[in-house]
Design brief:
By secondary structure, the protein is mainly alpha-helical. It has one domain. It is 72% helix and 3% strand. The protein contains 5 helices and 2 strands; from the N terminus they run H-H-H-H-H-E-E. A two-stranded antiparallel sheet has the order 1-2. Helix 1 runs antiparallel to helix 3, helix 3 packs antiparallel against helix 4 and helix 4 packs antiparallel against helix 5.
Length: 127
């Protein structure tokens, strides 16, 4: 993939992650509802928010793009699984917006990770 396209995808993922932080860190009622329903309120909400902030920063730093994309994919896959197993697609009449945003973010992070696959250090060897 072209470098500028990957940069746009990285910025998009970082913005999505960062824009959700205000809901988690201010204990927005929707965020509290979600994390209460899955049994992770308040520590899970805050902890996941911190991890999402770290992922957003890592995905913007050239040497850690792969780590940010991997952390994002892991966090978002957890969100998708919570939607599919406990929350449902639609939350508080949002029309599935949170679920579809999670799926989109997962796809973008997977594309970035695939693009960075040769830069992932594995036992001291670049794959």
């Amino acid at each position: 993939m072209h470098k500028s396209l990957i940069l746009i995808l990285r910025i998009a993922v970082a913005l999505i992650l960062i824009q959700t932080l205000r809901f988690k860190f201010t204990a927005h009622p929707d965020s509290v509802y979600i994390f209460t329903k899955v049994g992770l309120e308040p520590y899970g909400r805050i902890g996941i928010g911190v991890l999402e902030l770290i992922a957003a920063i890592l995905i913007l730093i050239p040497k850690t793009i792969w780590a940010g994309a991997l952390l994002t994919a892991g966090l978002i896959s957890g969100a998708i699984m919570m939607h599919l197993t406990q929350l449902g697609i639609e939350i508080n009449n949002d029309g599935g917006t949170l679920f579809y945003m999670a799926v989109g973010t997962f796809i973008l992070s997977a594309l970035i990770l695939w693009n960075q696959r040769k830069k992932i250090p594995f036992a001291g060897i670049n794959l």
